[in-house]
Amino acid sequence: MASIDFRYLIPEAIFVELTQLAKDGHKDKNRIVAGWMFADRKNNFAIINGYDVTKDPADSHVRPKSWMRMKKHKLYYMRKLKEERNIDIIYQFHTHPNGKENLHEVDLKILNYLTTGVMVVITPDNIVGWYFDKRETKKAIIDKMIFEIINE
Ligand SMILES: [Zn+2]
């Protein structure tokens, strides 16, 4: 749950690697890379400790062919990864090589369908998360998550 007293930390080495994916995409027709980011939870900190790139670069934001399958796939993978690799927190990420930190129209449609979740956007310069929740409110709650860089 995103809140003011919860903090998101990312080691500099991982920050550099992930933003490089967006930089590379920028040189390659703004092609998008997607995957999972993993974090340890310690008290009120989420500390990123790794990531997996899961999809080949795509040309742009693509609407899911089947919304139900997209949701099942996401929930299945998150559960599987948490169980098999004993991971506390998993976020789905994708790059915005064009540098836009805000959610794309398709990103918002996906979050709307899921009703709650986090979507992390990686630009060539920054990493931001978007916490989305409209389970209990008519208008969705959308909170920006700032990732703070740490030197290990
Ligand atoms: Zn997007």
Automatic annotation (TrEMBL):
<protein>
    <recommendedName>
        <fullName>JAB domain-containing protein</fullName>
    </recommendedName>
</protein>
